[in-house]
């Protein structure tokens, strides 16, 4: 059986739909997951969210072992977590960094990024649609590898 695509979401993304909708939109994380399942074709998806840095790191390590591609919206850990950076560095599968907003166009503290140097590519600024774009990119990577 082929390996799943991991889609991991970091802190506060459980609040999508009500959290700063002018920035993050009105779709909930559950809406996003449902939309992705419709587009997943032959690819199994592992879709998760946590507010805890250590849990996210455990899941990154799991994705490296069991997954084909990692799509990661690290939330604010993008800008703070050297531990996440190190976990991603140890991850041999392709990593797609994903953000609903465009952090580069926001506050200066969001311009610090510990994830981008390790990611294969990055999707940011397209709201919930970015998840669909990331899934398409992951599916393309899997086809290229297979
Ligand atoms: C985010 C951007 C981060 O700067 C922020 O801390 C988030 C969400 C995004 O999806 O736009 O929590 O990752």
Question: Taking all residues together, what is the mean pLDDT?
Answer: 97
Order of helices and strands: EHHEHEHEEH
Classify the helix fraction into a percent range. Answer: 25-40%
How would you sum up the major sheet? 5 strands, parallel
| N- to C-terminal distance | 13 Å
Strand order of the largest sheet: 2-1-3-4-5
Residue runs with pLDDT of under 50 for 5 or more positions: none
Oligomeric state, counting identical vs distinct chains = single chain
- What is the tally of helical segments? 5
CATH class: Alpha Beta
Q: Write the CATH homologous superfamily.
A: Dehydroquinase, class II
Radius of gyration: 14 Å
The total strand number stands at: 5
Instruction: Kindly give the count of domains.
Output: 1
Shape label: globular
Strand content: 15-25%
């Amino acid at each position: 059986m082929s390996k799943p695509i991991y889609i991991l979401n970091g802190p506060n993304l459980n609040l999508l739909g009500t959290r700063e909708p002018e920035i993050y939109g009105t779709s909930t994380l559950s809406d996003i997951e449902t939309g992705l399942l419709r587009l997943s074709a032959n690819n199994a998806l592992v879709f998760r969210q946590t507010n805890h840095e250590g849990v996210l790191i455990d899941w990154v390590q799991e994705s490296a072992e069991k997954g084909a591609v990692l799509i990661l919206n690290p939330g604010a850990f993008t800008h703070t977590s050297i531990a996440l950076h190190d976990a991603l560095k140890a991850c041999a599968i392709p990593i797609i960094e994903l953000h609903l907003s465009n952090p580069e166009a926001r506050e200066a503290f969001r311009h610090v990024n510990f994830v981008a140097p390790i990611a294969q590519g990055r999707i940011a600024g397209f709201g919930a649609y970015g998840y669909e774009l990331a899934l398409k990119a992951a599916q393309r990577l899997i086809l290229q590898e297979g």
